[in-house]
From TrEMBL:
<dbReference type="InterPro" id="IPR005814">
    <property type="entry name" value="Aminotrans_3"/>
</dbReference>
<keyword id="KW-0032">Aminotransferase</keyword>
<dbReference type="InterPro" id="IPR015424">
    <property type="entry name" value="PyrdxlP-dep_Trfase"/>
</dbReference>
<comment type="similarity">
    <text>Belongs to the class-III pyridoxal-phosphate-dependent aminotransferase family.</text>
</comment>
<dbReference type="Pfam" id="PF00202">
    <property type="entry name" value="Aminotran_3"/>
</dbReference>
<dbReference type="InterPro" id="IPR015422">
    <property type="entry name" value="PyrdxlP-dep_Trfase_small"/>
</dbReference>
<keyword id="KW-0808">Transferase</keyword>
<keyword id="KW-0663">Pyridoxal phosphate</keyword>
<protein>
    <submittedName>
        <fullName>Aminotransferase class III-fold pyridoxal phosphate-dependent enzyme</fullName>
    </submittedName>
</protein>
<dbReference type="InterPro" id="IPR015421">
    <property type="entry name" value="PyrdxlP-dep_Trfase_major"/>
</dbReference>
<dbReference type="GO" id="GO:0008483">
    <property type="term" value="F:transaminase activity"/>
</dbReference>
Amino acid sequence: MSRPEVMFPSSEKWSRRARTVDAWAATRDQILEVDAANLGYPVYFERASGAHVWDVDGNRFIDFNLGYGPVVLGHAEPRVLDAVVRQMAQGTCASPLWHPRQVELAELMTEVIPGAEQAYLLRTGSDATTAAVRLARIHTGRDKVLRWGYNGWHDWCAPRPEGVPDPTLSNTLKFTYNDIESVRSAFAAHPDEIACVIMMSYEYDAPAPGFLNQVKEIANAHGALFILDEMRSGFRIALGGAQEHFGVVGDLSTFSKAMANGYPISAVVGRADVLAHLGRTHMSSTFYGNPAEMAAAITTIGILRETDALARIRRLGETFVDGLTELVRAYEIPAEVVGLPVSPFLIFDESDTAGCDRKVRFFTEVVRRGVLLHPNHQWFLSAAHTEEDVQISLDACRSAFDLISNG
Ligand SMILES: Cc1ncc(COP(=O)(O)O)c(C=O)c1O
């Protein structure tokens, strides 16, 4: 397939330079998963503001990636930026001393998240899920983990097995989403061995009614903990995350992403008796005590709490989903609009070459029209997106479907 009209000479220049020195870039030609749908995707960005990113070639895009979800209020949101800059100017790396922001943020999280008696602050999502699993192992004296969804890159949940020791791989079991029998049979096959179930509450499909509570009941009945990985749902689907939205409470739950509008901070929250095991293990990092990211989180959560930002995101998402569903129907595209309105996605039928080609042409065309939709990952909306952004994006989708339909 030939290159689309939008060209990226500066991006290509940086890519060439990167290939010899940037080990990450050297292992891949494309920034997304290797997939022809990457054609026409910009690689290097120069700046981001509100709902938009500008690449190094000056092309402006409406951004539905939002850094894989964190940027819930929009890029460089002024109030969050101000809080970070003010904290930075006061100095931000003074471990082993603690900063009062740590207390304020822990108080805030325990106020807004169901079941959060305490909060432990870390840096990344993988830090948080790994810490939660360690705590569950200490609490139960068991090794095995039963999990669903993406939970990070660390050994116990690495999506690919290369470099992970076999005993670690065999200590991680998986179950099938919305299939309660798969949870039951994992516990039946490994009695008294499973320390915890850890899961995202959804990726595309919503949980079946009662499913999350059933998983929790089964886990607890077998002496295991139930950990909800709220990385994508937290501070997005509701202020209190999936736990508030779906009416379930994890023994522990893990947050990052939208919690601080793009600044690196994460948290494990939940039962105080489980979090007390922090006193029996070593889990700490040089940067866990830095208050700038805490200031970002306090400000972000405050805005989400005091404004209708999350309701607006949901409404915009509904408009996007409704519009896209109508287009898919009208153009008779073999594809399905999936996901909750706050994080929708379009799955193409890729069972044959024509289907794969349709997907490539769709994503190439929408990017060419200045809309960044990820071909292989759910999309996100922010409070900075407008009705107009959504309509422009739907127009780009329409033009992509036009192209597909007309050969
Ligand atoms: C559900 C979920 N859990 C855990 C993680 C890991 O977070 P991080 O990439 O910050 O380590 C992610 C990241 O995408 C995620 O989506």
